[in-house]
Amino acid sequence: MMRSNFIDHELAILEPSGYITAANAASFQQELTQAIISSKHSTFLIDMHSVGFLDSAGLMALVYVYSLAESLGKRFSVCSLEPSVRIVFELTQLDKALEIFENRRQFELLMPNTIAA
Known about the structure:
The protein has helices at 25-38, 56-71, 83-91, 104-110; strands at 2-6, 11-20, 43-47, 50-54, 75-79, 99-101. 32% of the residues are buried. It is of the alpha/beta class. Helix 1 (25-38) packs parallel to helix 2 (56-71). The mean pLDDT is 89. The longest helix has 16 residues, at 56-71. Strands 1, 2, 3, 4, 5 and 6 form a 6-stranded mixed sheet that branches.
């Protein structure tokens, strides 16, 4: 369900795919949590370009992992939201809380100290 790219010692890019719903949100959250806890990386970019749908359970999983990352002093950002997924963030106003980038290129431009693929 998720592909991981470890770009350098600071940045890990995680790429979930498919639909993230109540049916798989717990495993999605567990995979992200494990990546955050077990990694020495300080920055995590969740590239959502392959996520076609996200329901409230999937959103809550992201919020949980975002809070965990913050508590551990790690940066947690999201990029490449499909319009149907972006609307969920906007309706819940989480687009104001989470750091959301249009795509990886925008992340690279705004994060010059981080190398992205």
